[in-house]
Write a structure and sequence with these properties.
The protein is α+β, with helices and mostly antiparallel strands and 309 residues long. It contains nine helices and twelve strands. The relative contact order is 0.13. InterPro entries: AGP_Transferase, Aminoglycoside_PTrfase, Kinase-like_dom_sf.
Length: 309
């Protein structure tokens, strides 16, 4: 790790420490996400090593505990095998079992409905009621489970969350900050202060799922998960399906997602959560879009015009 970037050798070393009785067969970089990931195959199974080369160790520690919290739930998440959160050198990392299947290349209405059903399972995770606070999950050593929310109320968190996203807009869509902030200011009272809590994934989308034989067999990326109202993830997920879906078919996928989830979102709350989804795109616009940036910016301006009307 001479240049600071974890290598295949570092990944093999991590596996050797996590499962010393297994022999490494192959190692390959996973070209996905913003952190550094490797898939390692041993003579007994497959593993993924995630090095926190993009986020801080506190976020990594919270993600590890979120995976552990969901381990006995109906949500199909990988099992944490080892976590080294304060290494003598190099970034923190953790090791999980590798999931079967692959991210879907295309999303059908049937798969969108399955996405809604799996998302609903996040509301029945044992131990969530014992977590103190709402908002982004933070590592809380000594607590049971060792997690805590970042805010006293969910409404307080949503307000902070949107403002954080809008604080560093991409230049091409910076003019949308004030209209989106205005939507949130006008609808924030619709956000519950202390909803029935659930684990709320921050980035629930097809790229973070594994599918085999048409079934969702894995959910990945619990970075920045929160404790609060699961309908925020539902609305954000629907927004992403609408933005990324086939021409003319995005709304159909969104409707199927809601159908699978089993409930709708009241209009004012939906507008607030949709504004939060738009704020995510404003923050990450340059990462989301490349060759199609001009067209994407025009579309986003149209979305905001409609949202703020």
């Amino acid at each position: 790790m001479a240049d600071g970037s974890p290598t295949e050798r570092d990944a093999r070393r991590a596996i050797a420490e996590a499962v010393p009785d297994e022999r490494v067969r192959s190692t390959a970089r996973i070209d996905a996400g913003t952190n550094t990931l490797y898939r390692v195959e041993t003579d007994a199974g497959g593993y993924v090593v995630k090095f926190n080369t993009f986020v801080g160790p506190d976020i990594t520690a919270a993600e590890v505990e979120a995976y552990r919290l969901l381990a006995d739930s109906d949500v199909p998440v990988p099992r944490v095998v080892d976590a080294v959160l304060d290494p003598a050198e190099g970034p923190a990392y953790f090791v999980t079992t590798a999931l079967p299947g692959d991210p879907p290349r295309d999303v059908s209405p049937a798969l969108a409905r399955r996405m809604g059903r799996v998302l609903r399972d996040f509301s029945s995770v044992s131990g969530v009621d014992a977590i103190d606070g709402y908002g982004r999950l933070q590592h809380a050593p000594g607590a049971t489970p060792p997690l805590a929310g970042s805010a006293d109320t969910w409404r307080e968190y949503v307000e902070w969350y949107v403002e954080m996203l809008l604080s560093k807009p991409s230049d091409r869509v910076a003019d949308l900050v004030d209209p989106v902030r205005g939507v949130v200011d006008g609808t924030l009272d619709a956000v519950p202060r202390r909803p029935d809590p659930a684990v709320v994934p921050d980035d629930y989308r097809p790229a973070n799922l594994h599918v085999a034989d048409g079934e969702i067999v894995g959910v990945l990326d619990l970075e920045r998960a929160a404790r609060g109202d699961l309908r925020l993830a539902l609305e954000k997920g629907g927004y992403l399906l609408t933005r990324d879906g086939p021409a003319g078919g995005g709304e159909r996928l969104r409707a199927a997602l809601y159908e699978g989830f089993g409930s709708d979102v009241p209009d004012e709350l939906r507008r607030c959560y949709r504004a939060a989804a738009v704020a995510s795109e404003i923050r990450g616009f340059d990462i989301w879009w490349d060759d199609d940036a001009d067209e994407a910016a025009e579309t986003l301006h149209g979305i905001v015009d409609k949202l703020s009307a």
